Amino acid sequence: MDCQSQDEVDELWARLGGRRRRRQCGWLKDKFGLSWQIVPRALPELLPGPRSEKAGRVMEAMMKMTKIDIAGLRQAYDGA
């Protein structure tokens, strides 16, 4: 699912049961066993190209996340 903001990511995560059946990189399973990926629209902006250093940092940060955190992705992009 494509989300405009962190608030929308958080709301969908809670409504779909992200506390129960979590995975990594924004993936979760709902109570019916359906898989969803909650993705903020900011993500494509933070992945400038597959071979860029910034994209590598963003991907590395995202792989450590369960629910995607936009602020954390931005910090990785900025090298913080």
Break the fold down into its secondary structure elements and pairings.
Blueprint lengths: L1 E2 L2 H10 L11 E3 L5 E3 L1 E2 L1 H4 L7 H11 L6 H9 L2
Parallel strand pairs: 1-4
Antiparallel strand pairs: 2-3
Helix pairs in contact: 3-4
Describe the protein's architecture and organization.
The protein is of the alpha+beta class and 80 residues long. The protein has a single domain (2-78), classed as Roll (2,3-Dihydroxybiphenyl 1,2-Dioxygenase, domain 1), CATH 3.10.180.10. It has helices at residues 6-15, 42-45, 53-63, 70-78; strands spanning 2-3, 27-29, 35-37, 39-40. A hairpin with a 5-residue loop joins strand 2 (27-29) and strand 3 (35-37). The radius of gyration is 13 Å and the shape is elongated.
In short:
By secondary structure, the chain is α+β, with helices and mostly antiparallel strands.
> Mean pLDDT score, rounded?
87
Strand order of the largest sheet: 1-4
CATH class: Alpha Beta
Strand content: 5-15%
Point out poorly predicted stretches: none
Total number of strands: 4
Q: What is the terminal separation in angstroms?
A: 28 Å
Shape: elongated
- Provide the CATH superfamily: 2,3-Dihydroxybiphenyl 1,2-Dioxygenase, domain 1
Number of helices, counting only DSSP H or I runs of 4 residues or more: 4
Features:
about 80 residues; alpha+beta; 2,3-Dihydroxybiphenyl 1,2-Dioxygenase, domain 1; two-stranded parallel ribbon; two-stranded antiparallel ribbon; 4 strands; elongated
